[in-house]
Write a structure and sequence with these properties.
- The structure holds 2 protein chains of 2 kinds.
- Chain A is built from 6 helices and 6 strands; from the N terminus they run ββαββαββαααα.
- Chain A is α+β, with helices and mostly antiparallel strands.
- In chain A, a hairpin with a 2-residue loop joins strand 1 and strand 2.
- In chain A, helix 3 crosses helix 6 and helix 4 crosses helix 5.
- The longest helix of chain A is centred in the C-terminal third of the chain and has 19 residues.
- The radius of gyration of chain A is 15 Å and the shape is globular.
- Chain B is an alpha+beta fold.
- Chain B folds into 3 domains: about 190 residues, Aldehyde Oxidoreductase, domain 4; about 150 residues, Aldehyde Oxidoreductase, domain 4; about 325 residues, Aldehyde oxidase/xanthine dehydrogenase, molybdopterin binding domain (Aldehyde Oxidoreductase, domain 4).
- In chain B, the strands form 8 sheets. Chain B has a 7-stranded mixed β-sheet, with helices on both faces. Chain B has a 5-stranded mixed β-sheet with strand order 2-6-5-4-3. A 5-stranded mixed β-sheet of chain B has the order 15-25-22-21-16, with helices on both faces.
- Chain B is globular.
- The chains are: A alpha+beta, B alpha+beta.
- The interface between A and B is large, with 71 and 74 residues.
Chain lengths: ~160, ~725
C-alpha cells in the first residue's frame, strides 16, 4: 500500500512498488488526463508536478512518489475556472489532436510559476522535452507568451 | 493566479467553444425521448442543447469544428448550445465519396460542405414553420439567430421550445431548403476555434486509451521480433505468477498478457518465453529492398503515362546532355502521440468496441468476419484519436483485432495498449521508394523530355480499394504527384507542362514490410523526386527554380497564380547571406494547390536550421482559416521531421528503430517560423491536412542545394551529412 497526495487528496494505492506513477494515475486512480506516450521519458506526455516540479510520471516509481504532493492536469481548473495557462491555450487555439497537451500545459504551468516572464531560450529549455506530432509548437509558444502577459497584467 | 471561468471565457471569446463530446452510442441515440430528431445529423434536446452527429473522426484534423460550423451557419445556432456525438456505424453516415465510414484523404470538409449545410437549412425551415404556428405569423415576419426564432415585433422563441409545436402539428422537415448566400455567411469563412478544445486543455477529453470500466482488464502483447513473424508456442508460467496477472494467451499478433493494470501486464509480458517463427521474413532488409529497387528502376516498368516522345528523345540525346538522378526515400512510421490501442468486450455473439479510428466500417467488417457474427452484432464506439497521419485507417484493423482476440472469453472489457516500441516496430509504414529520373533540356534550357520510373510497394493492391486504384496492374496511388495529366481517381496532374513526359511504374511484391498510407501518401515520395529533379533541370538550364515553374504552369491558372503569390510574399528575389539558402516546391494534391518556400542556414559542418517557411495555398473557399493555418503548420512540421530524420530500417527482418530516441521527432525549438497565405476563392472547399506535408521536403532539399551546391538524393538528410540543429 502506498500513500500519496494527488491533487490535494490523500489516496492509498495497492500496487507493486515499481509501478510508475503514470499507471497509478491512469489505471488505479482513473485520472486519465495524464497520457502515455513513450515510457522512457522522451516525450513529456505524462508530465505532472511533484512538489511543484515538472516530472515524467512514466519514470517515477510509486515508492518515490510516496508522501509527496502530486498535481495533474485535472487539478488546474479551480471549480469551473480555467487557469491562466489553459485560457491562453484556448485563446491561441493550440490543440489539434490534443493528446500531448496535458503534458505541454503542465510544463508551461511549471515554467511560468518559476519564471513568469520567460524569454525564447527559457521557453525552449522548458518545452523542448515535449513532443507534439501534430506540430502545434508555434501556437504553444504564442500561448506561453500570452499567459505570461496575462500574469504580468494580473500582478501589476 | 488570476483566472477566468469557463463561462467568462466563452463570453469574452467572440468565437466561443461548445459543450461536451460524447463517445458514440450505437443504439440509444434515436430512441431518446424528449428530443427531436430532425435529421440524421441533428437532434434538438429539450434542455436547449443541439446535438450534432459527427460522421468524420476527430484526430486533430478539425473535422468536428468545420462540420459544426456548417450546421451552425445554416441553422443559426448559438455555438454554446452545440453538443457532439460520434455517429454510429450506419450506412447513412458513410462518406458519400468513399461509400464507407472512413475519414481520410483530407476530404472531410469538402465532402461535408453541402450535406451538413443542407441538414442545417432543412431543420431551420422546419423550425420556422413551427414558429409560424407558435406566433400565428407568416414566416416572412420571422428570422433565426442564436438558436431562437425571432418575430419582428421583438418576441422570440427558443428552438427547444418549438419541439412541442413540431410534434403537436406533426411537422416534418422539408426535403430541400434554401441555403444561405456566401456573402451572408457569419460563421463559415471566419476563423473559428476548435470546438472540442476545452476538453483538451483540462484532461477530460476521452481518447481510446482513456476508456475505463470498473471490471476492465489491460493487456500488453509480446510481439514477434521479426516483422510478420508469429508465435509457435509459449510458456506463460512466470508471467501468471505476477500478482495482478489474470491470463496469458496466444492471439494472432503474439502473446497477450492480461492484468488489472497496464504496468503489471507489460512487466509480466517480459517474463513470457515464446518460440517464434519468422514467417519467412528473417532475411528481410531495407538495404536489400534498396538494391532490388535500384535494379528494377533500370528496367522498363508498366507504362502509366506517355506524352510525346520522352523515351526516344532521351535515347537520341548524347550521353553528356541527359541528366539522370536516382532518389530514394525510406520507410516511415507514423508515430502518433497516442500509441495504437483498442478496448473490446465480447459477450456471447456480441462485441462492443471503443476505439479511436478513422475507418470504423472496415473495423466492423473485419471483426464481424473474424468472429463469424453479423455486422450489426459488432458495435463501434468511436473516441477521439491522439493523432493518426493515416495509421488509424488500417485495412487489416490490426489494432482492433488485437483487442477483440485478447477479450475473447473474458466477458469484461479488455484494453490493449501498444507500447511505443510496438508502435514503431509493428507499424504499417510509408513504403520505401526509389525514383529514377532522366531529363533533357531544349535549346533555351527548358525541360523538353522527362522520364521517371517509380519503384515501390503498392498500398492498394489486393485490398478492397484495388478496383479504384489498380490500373492496368499498377497502383496509381503510388504515382500521385508525378503524372502530368489527370488519371483514374486523380482529377488533376502536376499543373506543369513538359512536352514529352513518360512515367513508368514497378510495384514489387507486397510481401514483407507492410506499406500503408502516411499523411499525403504518394506525394511523400513523388513530391521529393519530382520537385528536386525539377530543380536539377532548372540548375542545368540556368533557370531560376520558381521562374521555371511559372513557365511550366502558364496554362494552369491556379498553379500559376499560386506561384506568383509565393514569389511575391516570400521575397523570392531578395539575395540571402552566404551560408543561407532558399528553396521551393509546389504540389497539387486532392484538388488543392499548395506551394512553399523555405529559408535555411547551413553551417560549415552541414548542420542547419530552418529559419522560415512561406506557404501559399489554394483550397477553394476557406471554411475555417484558423483551422487551415493549424493544419498547415502541422503538415510542415511532420514533413520537415521526415525529411530531416525519418527512417525505419529493417535488418534481418527486425525493425531497428524503437522509440523517440532513435525515431527522432521534431521538437519545439526546431520548428521554423511559418507564414501562411490563403488564396481567396469562391470555389468549393478542398483539403489542406495532407497537402501541407507535401512541398516542404523537396523545398528543404532544394534550399540545401541552393546554400551548399550539394544535391541530396537519399533521405533522410541527417544520413547525408546535413543534420537539423537541436
Amino acid at each position: 500500500m502506498f500513500k500519496l497526495d494527488v491533487n490535494g487528496q490523500q489516496v492509498t494505492v495497492d500496487c507493486s512498488e515499481d509501478t510508475p506513477l503514470l499507471w497509478v494515475l491512469r489505471d488505479h486512480l482513473r485520472l486519465t488526463g495524464t497520457k502515455f506516450g513513450c515510457g522512457i521519458g522522451q516525450c513529456g506526455a505524462c508530465t505532472v508536478h511533484i512538489d511543484s516540479q515538472p516530472v515524467r510520471a512514466c519514470m517515477i516509481p510509486i515508492e518515490k512518489a510516496q508522501g509527496r504532493n502530486v498535481r495533474t492536469i485535472e487539478s488546474l481548473k479551480c471549480d469551473d475556472n480555467f487557469s491562466v495557462v489553459q485560457t491562453a491555450w484556448l485563446e491561441e487555439d493550440v490543440a489539434q489532436c490534443g493528446y500531448c497537451q496535458s503534458g505541454q500545459i503542465m510544463a508551461a504551468t511549471a515554467l511560468l510559476e518559476k519564471n513568469p516572464d520567460p524569454d525564447e531560450e527559457a521557453i525552449n529549455e522548458a518545452m523542448s522535452g515535449h513532443i507534439c506530432r501534430c506540430g502545434t509548437y508555434p501556437r504553444i509558444r504564442l500561448a506561453i507568451k500570452r499567459a505570461s502577459n496575462q500574469l504580468a497584467r494580473g500582478e501589476s | 493566479m488570476s483566472s477566468t471561468t469557463r463561462r467568462d471565457f466563452l463570453k469574452q471569446s467572440a468565437l466561443a467553444s461548445a459543450g461536451t463530446i460524447l463517445v458514440g452510442f450505437q443504439l440509444p441515440v434515436f430512441a431518446k425521448k424528449q428530443a427531436l430528431v430532425t435529421d440524421a445529423f441533428i437532434r434538438l434536446e429539450l434542455d436547449g442543447a443541439v446535438t450534432l452527429m459527427m460522421n468524420h473522426a476527430e484526430f486533430g484534423n478539425g473535422a468536428y469544428t468545420s462540420l459544426s460550423m456548417m450546421v451552425a451557419e445554416e441553422l443559426d445556432l448559438d455555438w454554446q448550445t452545440i453538443k457532439l456525438e460520434a455517429a454510429p456505424t450506419e450506412q447513412r453516415y458513410y462518406s458519400p465519396l468513399f461509400g464507407e465510414y472512413l475519414t481520410a484523404g483530407s476530404v472531410s470538409t469538402a465532402s461535408s460542405f453541402m450535406p451538413m449545410r443542407e441538414a442545417g437549412a432543412r431543420t431551420r425551415q422546419l423550425l420556422l414553420e413551427a414558429a409560424s404556428i407558435h406566433f400565428s405569423a407568416p414566416i416572412s415576419s420571422l428570422r433565426t439567430a442564436d438558436s431562437k426564432v425571432h418575430h419582428r415585433d421583438g418576441r422570440s422563441v427558443s428552438y427547444a421550445a418549438l419541439i412541442a409545436v413540431v410534434e403537436a402539428n406533426g411537422l416534418k422537415p422539408p426535403e430541400k431548403a434554401k441555403l444561405k448566400n456566401p456573402e451572408d455567411f457569419a460563421v463559415l469563412g471566419k476563423p473559428q476555434r476548435r470546438i472540442e478544445a476545452p476538453e483538451k486543455v483540462d484532461g477530460s477529453a476521452i481518447f481510446g486509451s482513456d476508456i475505463r470500466f470498473d471490471d476492465m482488464l489491460f493487456a500488453s502483447i509480446v510481439r514477434p521480433p521479426v516483422y510478420g513473424g508469429f508465435a509457435r508456442d509459449f510458456d506463460g508460467t512466470a508471467a501468471l505468477a505476477v500478482k495482478g496477472v489474470v491470463r496469458v494467451k496466444k492471439i494472432d499478433a503474439g502473446i497477450a498478457v492480461l492484468a488489472r493494470d497496464y504496468w503489471t501486464a507489460k512487466k509480466a509480458a517480459g517474463l513470457v518465453t515464446v518460440s517464434w517463427e519468422d514467417g519467412g521474413n528473417g532475411g528481410l532488409s531495407t538495404k536489400g529492398y534498396s538494391v532490388e529497387y535500384r535494379e528494377l528502376s533500370n528496367k522498363p516498368g508498366l507504362l502509366a503515362e506517355n506524352i510525346g516522345r520522352a523515351e526516344e528523345i532521351i535515347a537520341e540525346t548524347e550521353d553528356g546532355l541527359v541528366i539522370e538522378s536516382v532518389y530514394e526515400m525510406p520507410y516511415l512510421a507514423h508515430a502518433t502521440m497516442e500509441p495504437m490501442n483498442c478496448t473490446a468486450k465480447l459477450a456471447g455473439e456480441h462485441c462492443e468496441i471503443w476505439v479511436g479510428t478513422q475507418y470504423q466500417s472496415n473495423d466492423r467488417t473485419v471483426v464481424a468476419k473474424m468472429l463469424g457474427v453479423p455486422e450489426e452484432n459488432v458495435v463501434i464506439n468511436r473516441t477521439l484519436s491522439g493523432g493518426t497521419f493515416g495509421r488509424r485507417a488500417s485495412k487489416t484493423a490490426d489494432f482492433v483485432t488485437d483487442a477483440v482476440q485478447a477479450a475473447s472469453g473474458e466477458n469484461v472489457p479488455v484494453q490493449v495498449i501498444w507500447s511505443r516500441e510496438e508502435d514503431i516496430r509493428g507499424g504499417h509504414y510509408r513504403p520505401q521508394f526509389i525514383h529514377r529520373l532522366k531529363g533533357v533540356l531544349d535549346n533555351e534550357g527548358y525541360p523538353l523530355a522527362w522520364h521517371q520510373t517509380v519503384v515501390g510497394k503498392s498500398i492498394m493492391q489486393n485490398t478492397k480499394h484495388d478496383p479504384a486504384y489498380m490500373v492496368r496492374g499498377m497502383d496509381i496511388y503510388s504515382l500521385d504527384g508525378c503524372l502530368q495529366e489527370p488519371f483514374g481517381v486523380f482529377p488533376y496532374g502536376t499543373s506543369y507542362e513538359i512536352p514529352n513526359h513518360r512515367i513508368e511504374s514497378h510495384n514489387p511484391p507486397k510481401t514483407g514490410v507492410r506499406p500503408h498510407e502516411w499523411r499525403a501518401v504518394g506525394h511523400t515520395h513523388t513530391g521529393i523526386a519530382y520537385e528536386c529533379f525539377l530543380d536539377e533541370l532548372a540548375d542545368k538550364g540556368n533557370k531560376d527554380p520558381l521562374d521555371l515553374r511559372l513557365h511550366l504552369s502558364r496554362k494552369h491558372t491556379r498553379m500559376h497564380n499560386l506561384l506568383e503569390k509565393l514569389k511575391k510574399v516570400s521575397n523570392w528575389e531578395q539575395p540571402l547571406a552566404a551560408g543561407r539558402g532558399r528553396g521551393m516546391a509546389a504540389r497539387v494534391y486532392s484538388n488543392s494547390w499548395i506551394a512553399q518556400s523555405v529559408e535555411l542556414t547551413v553551417d560549415e559542418d552541414g548542420s542547419y536550421s530552418v529559419d522560415k517557411v512561406f506557404c501559399v495555398v489554394d483550397c477553394g473557399f476557406a471554411v475555417n482559416p484558423l483551422g487551415i493555418q493549424g493544419q498547415i503548420e502541422g503538415g510542415i512540421m511532420l514533413g520537415l521531421n521526415a525529411v530531416a530524420y525519418g527512417a525505419i530500417d529493417v535488418v534481418d527482418g527486425r525493425v531497428v528503430q524503437s522509440n523517440f530516441h532513435d525515431y527522432r521527432p521534431l521538437r519545439m525549438h526546431q520548428m521554423p517560423e511559418v507564414e501562411i497565405h490563403i488564396m481567396p476563392s469562391e470555389l468549393p472547399p478542398t483539403g489542406v491536412g495532407e497537402q501541407s506535408t507535401t512541398p516542404i521536403a523537396p523545398a528543404i532539399g532544394n534550399a540545401i542545394f541552393n546554400a551548399t551546391g550539394k544535391r541530396v538524393r537519399d533521405f533522410p538528410l541527417d544520413r547525408q551529412g546535413f543534420v537539423l540543429k537541436g
